[in-house]
Automatic annotation (TrEMBL):
Organism from which the protein derives: Novosphingobium silvae
Record's protein name: Sec-independent protein translocase protein TatB
A GO cellular component annotation in the UniProt record: TAT protein transport complex
GO molecular function, one term: protein transmembrane transporter activity
Leader sequence segment: none
Region of interest called Disordered, as start-end residue ranges on this chain: 74-139
Function per UniProt: Part of the twin-arginine translocation (Tat) system that transports large folded proteins containing a characteristic twin-arginine motif in their signal peptide across membranes. Together with TatC, TatB is part of a receptor directly interacting with Tat signal peptides. TatB may form an oligomeric binding site that transiently accommodates folded Tat precursor proteins before their translocation.
Bilayer-crossing regions: 6-22
Subunit structure, as described in the record: The Tat system comprises two distinct complexes: a TatABC complex, containing multiple copies of TatA, TatB and TatC subunits, and a separate TatA complex, containing only TatA subunits. Substrates initially bind to the TatABC complex, which probably triggers association of the separate TatA complex to form the active translocon.
Length: 139
């Protein structure tokens, strides 16, 4: 990148030892290492941002191509029958076409407060079965 050779690196080390001194050299190297680390973080962050922008541009291009191909296919293929129900299909069946199953005859129940609640529940269940057109439950 900077194309620094071994002889140039040796010259920098010698000048650094003479100027800074051997006593303060470890602290200077630590400081230089921190700065280099910060520079790497910034460059990696910048590179990641550029990569994300490139990926977004590629994705938009692929989506555009997909839309164009989809439109070409839709124009080239014949229309298939619609899966949506028509108004005729949505009309409610008439009362004469509906059959309500009749429950089997059962013996008359005696009316007590305990059985009235059960009888009301049975009547609701029978009404629900009639609404759903379900056959009566087995005995």
């Amino acid at each position: 990148m900077f194309d620094i050779g071994a002889s140039e690196l040796l010259m920098i080390v010698v000048v650094a030892v003479v100027v800074i001194g051997p006593k303060d050299m470890p602290m200077a190297l630590r400081t230089a290492g921190r700065w280099i680390g910060k520079m790497r973080k910034v460059s990696n962050h910048f590179r990641a941002g550029l990569d994300a922008m490139v990926r977004e541009a590629e994705l938009e291009e692929m989506e555009r191509k997909w839309r164009e191909q989809n439109e070409a296919i839709m124009k080239a293929s014949p229309q298939l029958p619609s899966m949506n129900p028509t108004a005729e299909d949505m009309q409610a069946p008439t009362a004469s076409s509906q059959t309500v199953p009749t429950p089997a005859s059962s013996p008359p129940a005696t009316s007590t407060p305990e059985t009235e609640g059960a009888a009301a529940g049975d009547a609701r269940a029978e009404n629900r079965q009639a609404e759903l057109q379900l056959p009566p439950p087995p005995p």
